[in-house]
Design brief:
Order of helices and strands: HHHH
Number of domains: 1
Largest sheet: none
Shape: elongated
Mean pLDDT: 89
Strand content: under 5%
Radius of gyration: 22 Å
Helix content: over 70%
Low-confidence stretches: none
Structural class: mainly alpha
Number of helices: 4
Distance between the termini: 71 Å
Length: 86
């Protein structure tokens, strides 16, 4: 029976959750077989989607940026003042 895209993704996610690098070999081993030619494009697409999720997750909302700048300036100034005193 052919390995499906969903099975490859599930294996990659399970490996990642377990702290194991989801390499092609690790995914293939977890699945109990499969062709690297089948696994490779799916794994590449999955990795790209993981990177996009991480990028989206760390983007700051536009409304919060002015507040962030003010906080950085205030606390940066406080730290600089403390360093100059010591």
């Amino acid at each position: 029976m052919a390995i499906t895209k969903d099975q490859i993704i599930e294996a990659a996610e399970a490996l990642k959750s377990a702290g194991v690098n989801p390499s092609m070999a690790a995914v293939r081993e977890r699945l109990g077989g499969g062709s690297f030619a089948t696994i490779s494009p799916v794994l590449r697409e999955w990795r790209e989607s993981q990177e996009q999720r991480a990028t989206v997750a760390i983007e700051m909302p536009a409304e919060a940026k002015p507040l962030w700048i003010v906080l950085v300036l205030i606390f940066g100034g406080l730290l600089l003042g403390l360093q100059l005193k010591s």
